[in-house]
Design goal:
The complex is a heterodimer of chains A (267) and B (161).
Chain A (H helix, E strand, L loop, with lengths): L1 H23 L1 H9 L2 E3 L3 H25 L9 H10 L4 H28 L8 H24 L3 H14 L6 H9 L6 H33 L9 H27 L10
Chain B lengths: L28 E3 H26 L24 H8 L3 H26 L12 H27 L4
Helix pairs in contact in B: 2-4
The chains are: A mainly alpha (267), B mainly alpha (161).
Protein backbone atom coordinates (compact mmCIF):
# COMPACT_ATOMS: atom_id res chain seq x y z
CA UNK A 1 0.00 0.00 0.00
CA UNK A 2 2.63 2.49 1.13
CA UNK A 3 4.94 1.29 -1.66
CA UNK A 4 2.22 1.96 -4.25
CA UNK A 5 1.52 5.42 -2.83
CA UNK A 6 5.20 6.22 -2.95
CA UNK A 7 5.39 5.13 -6.61
CA UNK A 8 2.32 7.20 -7.43
CA UNK A 9 3.74 10.27 -5.69
CA UNK A 10 7.04 9.89 -7.50
CA UNK A 11 5.25 9.55 -10.84
CA UNK A 12 3.02 12.53 -10.14
CA UNK A 13 5.94 14.79 -9.20
CA UNK A 14 7.93 13.58 -12.20
CA UNK A 15 4.94 14.35 -14.44
CA UNK A 16 4.66 17.84 -12.91
CA UNK A 17 8.38 18.57 -13.36
CA UNK A 18 8.29 17.33 -16.98
CA UNK A 19 5.14 19.35 -17.66
CA UNK A 20 6.79 22.56 -16.33
CA UNK A 21 10.05 21.83 -18.15
CA UNK A 22 8.26 21.27 -21.44
CA UNK A 23 6.37 24.54 -21.17
CA UNK A 24 8.85 26.86 -19.45
CA UNK A 25 12.28 25.20 -19.55
CA UNK A 26 12.53 25.96 -15.84
CA UNK A 27 14.53 22.84 -14.98
CA UNK A 28 17.21 23.60 -17.57
CA UNK A 29 17.42 27.19 -16.33
CA UNK A 30 17.73 26.09 -12.70
CA UNK A 31 20.43 23.56 -13.59
CA UNK A 32 22.27 26.24 -15.53
CA UNK A 33 22.10 28.68 -12.60
CA UNK A 34 22.81 26.26 -9.78
CA UNK A 35 25.57 24.11 -11.24
CA UNK A 36 27.59 26.90 -12.84
CA UNK A 37 31.23 26.26 -11.88
CA UNK A 38 32.65 29.07 -9.74
CA UNK A 39 36.23 29.51 -8.46
CA UNK A 40 36.75 27.52 -5.29
CA UNK A 41 39.45 29.51 -3.53
CA UNK A 42 37.66 32.86 -3.58
CA UNK A 43 34.33 31.55 -2.29
CA UNK A 44 34.46 33.58 0.94
CA UNK A 45 35.31 36.75 -0.98
CA UNK A 46 32.21 36.41 -3.13
CA UNK A 47 29.99 36.32 -0.07
CA UNK A 48 30.56 40.10 0.11
CA UNK A 49 28.64 40.60 -3.14
CA UNK A 50 25.87 38.25 -2.14
CA UNK A 51 25.66 39.97 1.26
CA UNK A 52 25.00 43.25 -0.57
CA UNK A 53 22.23 41.52 -2.54
CA UNK A 54 20.82 40.03 0.66
CA UNK A 55 20.75 43.34 2.56
CA UNK A 56 19.12 45.10 -0.40
CA UNK A 57 16.48 42.34 -0.46
CA UNK A 58 15.92 42.94 3.27
CA UNK A 59 15.50 46.65 2.49
CA UNK A 60 12.83 45.89 -0.12
CA UNK A 61 10.91 43.45 2.11
CA UNK A 62 10.95 45.50 5.32
CA UNK A 63 10.34 48.69 3.31
CA UNK A 64 7.14 47.18 1.88
CA UNK A 65 6.03 46.19 5.39
CA UNK A 66 6.77 49.68 6.76
CA UNK A 67 4.54 51.14 4.03
CA UNK A 68 1.56 49.38 5.60
CA UNK A 69 1.69 51.88 8.49
CA UNK A 70 3.77 54.81 7.33
CA UNK A 71 1.94 58.00 6.30
CA UNK A 72 3.97 60.49 4.21
CA UNK A 73 2.42 63.74 5.45
CA UNK A 74 3.97 66.31 7.76
CA UNK A 75 1.14 65.83 10.26
CA UNK A 76 1.35 62.06 10.51
CA UNK A 77 4.83 60.95 9.41
CA UNK A 78 6.47 61.13 12.84
CA UNK A 79 3.36 59.74 14.58
CA UNK A 80 3.16 56.78 12.22
CA UNK A 81 6.85 55.95 12.75
CA UNK A 82 6.34 56.27 16.49
CA UNK A 83 3.28 53.99 16.19
CA UNK A 84 5.40 51.44 14.29
CA UNK A 85 8.01 51.56 17.05
CA UNK A 86 5.65 51.25 20.01
CA UNK A 87 2.30 49.73 18.98
CA UNK A 88 2.46 47.80 15.71
CA UNK A 89 3.06 44.03 15.85
CA UNK A 90 6.78 43.45 15.30
CA UNK A 91 7.01 47.10 14.25
CA UNK A 92 10.20 47.63 16.21
CA UNK A 93 11.72 44.51 14.64
CA UNK A 94 10.76 45.49 11.09
CA UNK A 95 11.97 49.07 11.40
CA UNK A 96 15.04 47.79 13.24
CA UNK A 97 15.91 45.42 10.40
CA UNK A 98 15.29 48.21 7.86
CA UNK A 99 17.55 50.57 9.80
CA UNK A 100 20.32 48.16 10.73
CA UNK A 101 20.49 46.34 7.41
CA UNK A 102 20.80 49.76 5.74
CA UNK A 103 23.85 50.38 7.92
CA UNK A 104 25.25 46.94 7.10
CA UNK A 105 24.50 47.59 3.43
CA UNK A 106 26.74 50.67 3.36
CA UNK A 107 29.54 48.81 5.12
CA UNK A 108 29.30 45.71 2.92
CA UNK A 109 29.14 47.79 -0.26
CA UNK A 110 32.40 49.43 0.77
CA UNK A 111 34.03 46.06 1.40
CA UNK A 112 32.71 44.61 -1.86
CA UNK A 113 33.96 47.60 -3.80
CA UNK A 114 37.38 47.48 -2.15
CA UNK A 115 37.68 43.78 -2.88
CA UNK A 116 36.89 44.30 -6.57
CA UNK A 117 39.26 47.26 -6.78
CA UNK A 118 42.25 45.63 -5.12
CA UNK A 119 41.88 42.34 -7.02
CA UNK A 120 41.55 44.14 -10.36
CA UNK A 121 38.14 42.60 -11.00
CA UNK A 122 37.09 45.63 -13.08
CA UNK A 123 39.51 44.83 -15.91
CA UNK A 124 38.48 43.77 -19.42
CA UNK A 125 35.99 42.27 -20.19
CA UNK A 126 34.28 43.31 -16.93
CA UNK A 127 34.52 47.12 -17.27
CA UNK A 128 30.80 47.65 -17.72
CA UNK A 129 29.99 45.68 -14.61
CA UNK A 130 32.18 48.10 -12.63
CA UNK A 131 30.32 51.01 -14.23
CA UNK A 132 26.94 49.48 -13.32
CA UNK A 133 28.29 48.92 -9.80
CA UNK A 134 29.23 52.60 -9.43
CA UNK A 135 25.72 53.60 -10.61
CA UNK A 136 24.26 51.21 -8.03
CA UNK A 137 26.47 52.79 -5.34
CA UNK A 138 25.19 56.27 -6.24
CA UNK A 139 21.57 55.03 -6.17
CA UNK A 140 22.10 53.48 -2.73
CA UNK A 141 23.60 56.76 -1.47
CA UNK A 142 20.50 58.52 -2.87
CA UNK A 143 18.27 56.06 -1.03
CA UNK A 144 20.19 56.58 2.21
CA UNK A 145 19.87 60.35 1.87
CA UNK A 146 16.14 60.39 1.04
CA UNK A 147 15.29 57.82 3.71
CA UNK A 148 16.65 59.96 6.55
CA UNK A 149 13.98 62.67 6.07
CA UNK A 150 10.99 60.32 6.02
CA UNK A 151 10.85 59.77 9.77
CA UNK A 152 10.28 63.53 10.07
CA UNK A 153 12.15 63.94 13.33
CA UNK A 154 14.57 66.71 14.23
CA UNK A 155 17.65 64.68 13.24
CA UNK A 156 16.39 63.54 9.86
CA UNK A 157 14.75 66.85 9.01
CA UNK A 158 17.66 69.14 9.79
CA UNK A 159 20.26 66.76 8.36
CA UNK A 160 18.29 66.74 5.10
CA UNK A 161 17.95 70.53 5.15
CA UNK A 162 21.71 70.84 5.62
CA UNK A 163 22.27 68.25 2.89
CA UNK A 164 20.09 70.18 0.47
CA UNK A 165 21.80 73.41 1.47
CA UNK A 166 25.14 71.81 0.57
CA UNK A 167 23.69 70.59 -2.72
CA UNK A 168 22.47 74.09 -3.54
CA UNK A 169 26.11 75.17 -3.84
CA UNK A 170 26.47 73.08 -7.01
CA UNK A 171 27.65 75.25 -9.87
CA UNK A 172 24.93 75.97 -12.48
CA UNK A 173 22.46 73.20 -11.53
CA UNK A 174 22.34 73.63 -7.73
CA UNK A 175 19.34 75.96 -7.48
CA UNK A 176 17.21 73.91 -9.90
CA UNK A 177 18.02 70.56 -8.27
CA UNK A 178 17.22 71.83 -4.79
CA UNK A 179 14.02 73.52 -5.97
CA UNK A 180 12.98 70.20 -7.47
CA UNK A 181 13.85 68.26 -4.29
CA UNK A 182 12.26 70.75 -1.89
CA UNK A 183 9.11 71.25 -3.92
CA UNK A 184 9.06 74.87 -2.81
CA UNK A 185 11.17 77.58 -1.26
CA UNK A 186 11.47 75.96 2.16
CA UNK A 187 11.49 72.36 3.37
CA UNK A 188 7.92 71.34 4.17
CA UNK A 189 5.08 69.07 2.99
CA UNK A 190 6.25 69.22 -0.62
CA UNK A 191 9.73 68.07 0.40
CA UNK A 192 8.35 65.09 2.30
CA UNK A 193 6.19 64.04 -0.68
CA UNK A 194 9.10 64.24 -3.06
CA UNK A 195 11.55 62.42 -0.81
CA UNK A 196 8.87 59.76 -0.28
CA UNK A 197 8.33 59.36 -4.04
CA UNK A 198 12.08 59.13 -4.61
CA UNK A 199 12.72 56.75 -1.73
CA UNK A 200 9.92 54.24 -2.30
CA UNK A 201 9.33 54.50 -6.04
CA UNK A 202 11.89 56.11 -8.28
CA UNK A 203 15.17 54.90 -6.75
CA UNK A 204 14.03 51.30 -6.01
CA UNK A 205 12.55 51.08 -9.51
CA UNK A 206 15.90 52.21 -10.90
CA UNK A 207 17.98 49.98 -8.66
CA UNK A 208 16.11 46.70 -9.28
CA UNK A 209 16.77 46.34 -13.04
CA UNK A 210 20.36 47.51 -12.58
CA UNK A 211 20.91 44.76 -10.01
CA UNK A 212 19.63 42.39 -12.71
CA UNK A 213 22.15 43.80 -15.21
CA UNK A 214 24.92 43.55 -12.59
CA UNK A 215 24.10 39.85 -12.00
CA UNK A 216 23.70 39.13 -15.71
CA UNK A 217 27.12 40.60 -16.47
CA UNK A 218 28.59 38.69 -13.53
CA UNK A 219 27.31 35.41 -14.96
CA UNK A 220 28.25 36.43 -18.51
CA UNK A 221 31.94 36.79 -17.69
CA UNK A 222 32.20 34.67 -14.58
CA UNK A 223 33.30 35.89 -11.16
CA UNK A 224 36.83 37.13 -10.69
CA UNK A 225 37.97 37.15 -7.11
CA UNK A 226 41.72 37.37 -7.21
CA UNK A 227 44.79 36.24 -9.09
CA UNK A 228 45.41 33.46 -6.56
CA UNK A 229 42.60 31.45 -8.14
CA UNK A 230 44.81 31.16 -11.24
CA UNK A 231 48.15 30.41 -9.56
CA UNK A 232 48.70 27.01 -11.21
CA UNK A 233 47.66 28.19 -14.66
CA UNK A 234 49.92 31.24 -14.36
CA UNK A 235 52.79 29.00 -13.26
CA UNK A 236 52.23 26.74 -16.29
CA UNK A 237 52.12 29.76 -18.60
CA UNK A 238 55.30 31.23 -17.19
CA UNK A 239 57.05 27.87 -17.39
CA UNK A 240 56.08 27.48 -21.05
CA UNK A 241 57.13 31.07 -21.82
CA UNK A 242 60.47 30.49 -20.10
CA UNK A 243 61.10 27.33 -22.13
CA UNK A 244 60.21 29.09 -25.39
CA UNK A 245 62.48 31.98 -24.56
CA UNK A 246 65.28 29.57 -23.76
CA UNK A 247 64.76 27.71 -27.06
CA UNK A 248 64.80 31.00 -28.99
CA UNK A 249 67.98 32.06 -27.23
CA UNK A 250 69.72 28.80 -28.11
CA UNK A 251 68.64 29.17 -31.73
CA UNK A 252 69.97 32.73 -31.96
CA UNK A 253 73.22 31.62 -30.41
CA UNK A 254 73.68 28.89 -33.03
CA UNK A 255 72.99 31.29 -35.91
CA UNK A 256 75.58 33.76 -34.70
CA UNK A 257 78.31 31.15 -34.43
CA UNK A 258 77.51 29.69 -37.82
CA UNK A 259 77.29 26.20 -36.44
CA UNK A 260 74.66 23.74 -37.56
CA UNK A 261 72.75 26.34 -39.64
CA UNK A 262 69.84 26.38 -37.18
CA UNK A 263 66.46 24.80 -37.59
CA UNK A 264 67.47 21.18 -37.34
CA UNK A 265 67.84 21.32 -33.58
CA UNK A 266 64.51 23.03 -33.09
CA UNK A 267 62.48 21.23 -30.47
CA UNK B 1 21.52 33.68 -23.52
CA UNK B 2 24.25 32.79 -21.07
CA UNK B 3 27.25 32.04 -23.26
CA UNK B 4 29.91 30.06 -21.50
CA UNK B 5 33.16 31.90 -20.93
CA UNK B 6 35.86 30.99 -23.43
CA UNK B 7 37.96 27.91 -22.84
CA UNK B 8 35.43 26.19 -20.61
CA UNK B 9 34.46 23.66 -23.29
CA UNK B 10 37.93 22.14 -23.63
CA UNK B 11 39.30 19.60 -21.13
CA UNK B 12 42.03 20.97 -18.89
CA UNK B 13 44.79 18.65 -20.12
CA UNK B 14 44.50 19.55 -23.82
CA UNK B 15 44.39 23.29 -23.36
CA UNK B 16 47.48 25.33 -24.23
CA UNK B 17 47.68 28.18 -21.75
CA UNK B 18 48.45 31.51 -23.42
CA UNK B 19 48.46 35.13 -22.29
CA UNK B 20 44.92 35.43 -23.61
CA UNK B 21 43.23 32.44 -22.00
CA UNK B 22 45.13 32.14 -18.71
CA UNK B 23 42.32 33.87 -16.81
CA UNK B 24 39.47 32.15 -18.64
CA UNK B 25 39.17 29.34 -16.10
CA UNK B 26 40.35 29.16 -12.49
CA UNK B 27 42.51 26.33 -11.16
CA UNK B 28 39.81 24.80 -9.00
CA UNK B 29 36.07 25.20 -9.32
CA UNK B 30 33.06 24.24 -7.25
CA UNK B 31 29.43 24.14 -8.33
CA UNK B 32 27.57 27.31 -7.37
CA UNK B 33 25.08 25.09 -5.55
CA UNK B 34 25.61 23.94 -2.85
CA UNK B 35 29.19 25.16 -2.19
CA UNK B 36 28.88 28.87 -2.86
CA UNK B 37 25.21 29.09 -1.85
CA UNK B 38 26.05 27.59 1.55
CA UNK B 39 28.77 30.15 2.26
CA UNK B 40 26.52 33.00 1.09
CA UNK B 41 23.85 31.56 3.38
CA UNK B 42 26.16 31.63 6.42
CA UNK B 43 27.00 35.30 5.89
CA UNK B 44 23.39 36.27 5.15
CA UNK B 45 22.14 34.46 8.24
CA UNK B 46 24.75 36.18 10.38
CA UNK B 47 23.69 39.60 9.04
CA UNK B 48 20.00 38.84 9.58
CA UNK B 49 20.61 37.65 13.15
CA UNK B 50 22.73 40.73 13.87
CA UNK B 51 19.91 42.95 12.55
CA UNK B 52 17.32 41.16 14.70
CA UNK B 53 19.46 41.41 17.85
CA UNK B 54 20.37 45.05 17.20
CA UNK B 55 16.77 46.08 16.52
CA UNK B 56 15.97 45.23 20.16
CA UNK B 57 19.37 45.93 21.75
CA UNK B 58 19.77 49.29 19.98
CA UNK B 59 16.37 50.26 18.51
CA UNK B 60 16.30 52.40 15.37
CA UNK B 61 16.53 56.03 16.54
CA UNK B 62 13.67 58.50 16.44
CA UNK B 63 14.23 61.94 17.96
CA UNK B 64 11.48 64.46 18.75
CA UNK B 65 9.14 65.50 15.90
CA UNK B 66 10.57 67.88 13.31
CA UNK B 67 9.98 71.52 14.13
CA UNK B 68 10.61 73.82 11.18
CA UNK B 69 10.75 76.82 13.52
CA UNK B 70 13.88 75.59 15.37
CA UNK B 71 16.94 77.68 14.63
CA UNK B 72 19.70 76.18 16.77
CA UNK B 73 19.38 72.42 16.15
CA UNK B 74 22.69 70.75 15.28
CA UNK B 75 21.91 67.80 13.01
CA UNK B 76 24.26 64.88 12.58
CA UNK B 77 24.54 63.03 9.29
CA UNK B 78 24.60 59.25 9.35
CA UNK B 79 28.01 57.70 9.88
CA UNK B 80 28.56 56.92 6.18
CA UNK B 81 28.32 60.63 5.41
CA UNK B 82 30.79 61.57 8.18
CA UNK B 83 33.79 61.68 5.85
CA UNK B 84 31.89 63.94 3.48
CA UNK B 85 30.80 66.27 6.26
CA UNK B 86 34.33 66.38 7.64
CA UNK B 87 35.73 67.09 4.17
CA UNK B 88 33.53 70.19 3.99
CA UNK B 89 35.29 71.51 7.08
CA UNK B 90 38.41 71.88 4.94
CA UNK B 91 36.56 74.13 2.49
CA UNK B 92 35.19 76.94 4.66
CA UNK B 93 33.34 79.98 3.42
CA UNK B 94 31.02 80.73 0.56
CA UNK B 95 33.71 80.78 -2.11
CA UNK B 96 35.19 77.37 -1.32
CA UNK B 97 32.18 75.35 -0.23
CA UNK B 98 30.89 74.72 -3.74
CA UNK B 99 34.32 73.41 -4.63
CA UNK B 100 34.50 71.06 -1.65
CA UNK B 101 30.85 70.02 -1.63
CA UNK B 102 30.30 69.39 -5.31
CA UNK B 103 33.32 69.78 -7.58
CA UNK B 104 35.69 67.47 -5.67
CA UNK B 105 33.11 64.66 -5.21
CA UNK B 106 32.03 64.96 -8.86
CA UNK B 107 35.62 64.62 -10.05
CA UNK B 108 36.04 61.66 -7.73
CA UNK B 109 32.89 59.95 -9.06
CA UNK B 110 33.94 60.55 -12.68
CA UNK B 111 37.33 59.00 -11.86
CA UNK B 112 35.53 56.10 -10.20
CA UNK B 113 33.56 55.47 -13.40
CA UNK B 114 36.77 55.70 -15.41
CA UNK B 115 38.79 53.24 -13.29
CA UNK B 116 38.64 50.36 -15.85
CA UNK B 117 39.97 52.66 -18.57
CA UNK B 118 42.61 54.36 -16.43
CA UNK B 119 44.14 50.99 -15.54
CA UNK B 120 44.06 48.96 -18.73
CA UNK B 121 46.96 46.52 -18.59
CA UNK B 122 45.05 43.26 -19.02
CA UNK B 123 47.43 40.93 -17.18
CA UNK B 124 48.03 42.90 -14.01
CA UNK B 125 45.25 41.73 -11.72
CA UNK B 126 47.48 41.39 -8.69
CA UNK B 127 47.60 44.61 -6.65
CA UNK B 128 51.37 44.26 -6.21
CA UNK B 129 51.96 44.21 -9.97
CA UNK B 130 50.04 47.48 -10.41
CA UNK B 131 51.40 49.57 -7.53
CA UNK B 132 50.10 52.93 -8.79
CA UNK B 133 46.44 51.90 -8.65
CA UNK B 134 46.88 50.09 -5.34
CA UNK B 135 48.69 52.97 -3.61
CA UNK B 136 46.03 55.37 -4.88
CA UNK B 137 43.29 53.09 -3.57
CA UNK B 138 44.96 52.81 -0.17
CA UNK B 139 45.38 56.60 -0.02
CA UNK B 140 41.65 57.07 -0.71
CA UNK B 141 40.85 54.54 2.04
CA UNK B 142 43.15 56.31 4.51
CA UNK B 143 41.62 59.70 3.70
CA UNK B 144 38.08 58.35 4.15
CA UNK B 145 38.89 56.60 7.43
CA UNK B 146 40.87 59.56 8.84
CA UNK B 147 38.03 61.91 7.92
CA UNK B 148 35.52 59.65 9.68
CA UNK B 149 37.71 59.52 12.79
CA UNK B 150 38.10 63.31 12.72
CA UNK B 151 34.32 63.69 12.48
CA UNK B 152 33.77 61.28 15.38
CA UNK B 153 36.33 63.07 17.55
CA UNK B 154 34.78 66.45 16.68
CA UNK B 155 31.32 65.19 17.64
CA UNK B 156 32.60 63.73 20.92
CA UNK B 157 34.57 66.85 21.83
CA UNK B 158 32.05 69.46 20.69
CA UNK B 159 28.58 67.88 20.95
CA UNK B 160 26.89 71.28 20.53
CA UNK B 161 28.80 72.57 17.52
Amino acid sequence: MIGRMRTQTTEASKFLVDWMEHRTGIVTIMEHFLYEPVPKRGAWLYTLGSAVLFTITLQFLTGILLLFYYVPTTDHAWNSVSYIMTEAYFGQLIRGIHYWSANFLMAVIGLHMGQVFFSGGYKAPRELNWVVGVILLLLVIGLAFTGYLLRWDQDGFWASVVGMKIGSYSPFVGAYTINFLMGGDVAGPGTLSRFFALHVWLLPAAIAPLIGVHLYLLRRHGVFGSEFEYTERLAKLHERQRLEEYADYELDDDDENGRDGGGSRRE
Amino acid sequence: MYAAATGKAKPVEEEVITEENVYSRPDETIAFFPGQVLKDGYVSTFILLACVVLSYAAPAPLSEPADTATVDYVPRPEWFFFFYEQMLMFFPGYALISFGAVVVPTVFIVLLFAVPWLDRSPQHYNSISRPFASVLGILVLIIVILNMLLAVSRIINFPEA
